Amino acid sequence: MAKIGFIGLGNMGGPMAINLVKAGHEVRVFDLSPDAIATLVEVGATAVNAVEEVCDNADFVVSMLPAGKHVKAIYTGENGLINHLDKNTLVIDCSTIDAESAQYVGKALGEAGIKFVDAPVSGGVAGAAAGTLTFIVGGSTACFELANIILPNMGKNIYHAGDIGAGQVAKICNNMLLSILMAGTSEALQMGIDHGLDPKVLSEIMLNSSGRNWTLELYNPCPDVLENVPSSNGYKPGFMVDLMAKDLGLAQQAAQQTNSATPMGALAKNLYNLMQNQGKGAEDFSAIFKLYSEK
Ligand code: NAD
Questions:
Q1: Average pLDDT, rounded, for the chain
Q2: What is the rounded distance in angstroms from the CA atom of residue 164 to the CA atom of residue 91?
Q3: What is the predicted ipTM?
Q4: Can you tell me the distance from the alpha carbon of 165 to that of 199, in angstroms, rounded to the nearest whole number?
Q5: pLDDT for 240-279, tens place per residue?
Q6: pLDDT tens track for 153-171
Q7: Would the CB of 5 count as within 6 Å of ligand 1?
Q8: How many CB atoms lie within 10 A of CB 193?
Q9: 244-274 burial string, b = 16+ CB within 10 Å, else e?
Q10: How far is the CA of 7 from the centre of ligand 1 (A)?
Q11: What is the pLDDT of residues 139-157, one digit of tens each?
């Protein structure tokens, strides 16, 4: 069994760390939220007093933080973990961040002899809890193989996308598509409702027609079509609007670098920015349905 340090025990990191504990690993945890730490201690993880203590004799350090600035600060900032990590440790950053930040951190750690992969995930909080996440890994083949020792304890599909940063590029392509599907599904459902259709029946019809997609099937944005999804629970996240807006900003940044045309992604970014301006940043991203349904 491995010794694992885990930083960032939020909506995703919390259940991921629980699965590592359940798999029998020795897990030391750190978060800024005492409540998040307490939940992990209850299931058998060990709390540390200071973030650098997660590094002590660790085989792996896993992080699941909001954005690039947090990841850079934790690893390469003032008194960053770069000063505390051992050369035998593999750092696995699962946060969704810009590829440049991942490459910056990976290069800095690499120059200090410390191994690093970016390994953003897809599958949402349900996938994190069930241990069925998709991991999209960027890094050397040797580090990918090493990461594969523990990633199956948290996920089902594990892909090697390329070098450091490639995991992040694949992840933001996916999230840009996800946001477009969420907006489109909301738009179609509300048009049906406006014409008197039952959203459950309409969802069933589209699920068996060519409009079938993940948001319609597993994360339906219309309240009470599915149980146990954020839309049927007051749009409690889940995956926050603020995080989707961040990912769409990263997607536009990436598109600009290569002159890629992403008109639908730009539109989705604007819709999510509008929600942020309406004070809905902390709601689940499926709350975009309300842009269409609230008259
Ligand atoms: P979250 O806000 O619920 O969790 C982030 C956690 O990091 C919080 O508990 C916070 O206290 C902690 N944190 C922040 N700064 C810290 C620091 N300096 N030291 C220690 N802990 C710190 O966010 P989340 O939904 O768990 O998302 C985390 C990452 O995963 C994001 O990059 C997000 O884009 C990505 N992601 C989220 C989902 C989802 O469905 N929620 C799905 C895939 C990927």
A1: 97
A2: 12
A3: 0.99
A4: 40
A5: 999 999 999 999 999 999 999 999 999 999 999 999 999 9
A6: 999 999 999 999 999 999 9
A7: no
A8: 15
A9: bbbbbbbbbebbeeeeeebeebeebbebbee
A10: 9
A11: 999 999 999 999 999 999 9
Q: How confident is the model at residue 120 (pLDDT cuts 50, 70, 90)?
A: very high
Q: What is the separation of C-alpha 161 from the centre of its chain, rounded to a whole number of angstroms?
A: 16
Q: Report how far apart the first and last C-alpha atoms of the chain are (Å, whole number).
A: 55
Among 12, 215, 236, name the best residue to mutate to test ligand 1's pocket (greatest count of ligand atoms within 8 A of Cβ): 12
pTM of the predicted protein model: 0.92
Q: Which of 11, 93, 246 to mutate to test the pocket of ligand 1 (most atoms within 8 A of CB)?
A: 11
Peptide bond into 110 cis (omega under 30): no
Average pLDDT rounded to a whole number, residues 40-68: 97
148 Cβ closer than 6 Å to some ligand 1 atom: no
Q: How far is the CA of 278 from the centre of ligand 1 (A)?
A: 22
The answer to whether the CB of 84 is under 6 A from ligand 1 is: no
Domains by residue range for the chain, with CATH: 3-163 (3.40.50.720), 169-293 (1.10.1040.10)
Structure confidence at residue 104 (pLDDT): 98
Nearest-CA residue for atom 1 of ligand 1: 10
Q: Given ligand 1 and candidates 40, 64, 248, which is best to mutate, with the most ligand atoms within 8 Å of its CB? A: 64
Read off the pLDDT of each residue in 185-191 and give the average, rounded to a whole number.
Answer: 98
Q: Is 96 in the pocket of ligand 1 (CB under 6 A)?
A: yes
Token pair for residue 192?
Answer: 């049906």
Active site (catalytic) residues: 171
